[in-house]
Design brief:
Oligomer: single chain
Number of strands: 12
Shape: rod-shaped
Strand content: 25-35%
Structural class: alpha+beta
Helix content: 40-55%
Number of domains: 2
Strand order of the largest sheet: 3-4-5-11-10-9-8
CATH architecture of the largest domain: 3-Layer(aba) Sandwich
Distance between the termini: 109 Å
CATH superfamily of the largest domain: Mog1/PsbP, alpha/beta/alpha sandwich
Order of helices and strands: HEEEEHEEEHEEEEHE
Length: 243
């Protein structure tokens, strides 16, 4: 066979191999790009679905809360509510599904309970201010705060004056800046005293003396008793001691 023909065939064959290889490589790369785009799309869809699930859950919690608000306190069924119990400080309290519990590493407050609506607002403020307030720096934004004091004197400096021990009713009326005082019973315990307490603002507060200890339940977004929601009242009604 002519040498030129052999060289020509070799060149053609070589070019065919090179071009074929290039085309195969390009096709493989395109397939990889398509696969990666599909993976990205799947991830984005999963993230969108997760966000949508969270939004749907928050909306369901909000709708459930509004439905409960329409009921009278005595008609609210708390049997399926979650319950927070603190063995160290000897109390339990219930809260609705979807509400968040914030535990603190001290006694004042021990715990805070927050509605989905306020939790969302709190997160938005944290994000906006790039802050993570843990206690009262958040401006009493959570719905319910529960504090514990080993002795009444730990909160009321004037609990003992001139060797005279005052009643809790007297101390609330005279030792702190308050307005309105009412005594009532919860679960057959009648040492509950409610008032409007002033400080950074005006807040509806309940003081309870139990076994020489003092408990303080503060509603962070409530300025007066008539603004207590039915859920707030049901939470307060669920408060109990562990003896």
């Amino acid at each position: 066979m002519n040498k030129k023909i052999i060289i020509t065939i070799s060149i053609i064959f070589g070019l065919t191999v090179i071009v074929g290889g290039f085309l195969i490589l390009q096709k493989t790369r395109k397939q990889e790009v398509v696969k990666n785009e599909q993976k990205i799309e799947v991830v984005e869809n999963d993230e969108n679905e997760s966000k949508q699930d969270i939004e749907n859950q928050e909306e369901d919690n909000q709708n459930n809360q509004e439905k409960v608000e329409e009921l009278k306190v005595e008609d609210i069924d708390t049997s399926n509510w979650k319950e927070y119990c603190n063995q160290e400080y000897g109390f339990c309290v219930k809260y609705p599904e979807g509400w968040k519990v914030k535990k603190f590493n001290n006694n004042d407050p021990v715990v805070a309970i927050n509605s989905p609506r306020n939790e969302q607002l709190l997160q938005e403020i944290k994000k906006k201010n790039q802050e993570k307030p843990d206690t009262y720096g958040e401006g009493y934004m959570r719905d319910v705060y529960i504090s514990y004091y080993e002795k009444v004197t730990d909160y009321f400096d004037g609990a003992e004056k001139n060797n005279q021990k005052y009643t809790l009713k007297y101390l609330i009326s005279n030792e702190i800046d308050t307005k309105f005082l009412n005594q009532f019973c919860v679960n057959n315990d009648c040492d509950f005293y409610s008032c409007i307490q002033y400080g950074f603002g005006a807040y509806y507060v309940v003081f309870i003396k139990h076994n020489y200890h003092l408990y303080r339940i503060m509603f962070g977004n409530v300025e007066s008793e008539d603004k207590l929601s039915n859920i707030h009242k049901a939470i307060l009604k669920s408060f109990r001691f562990i003896d």
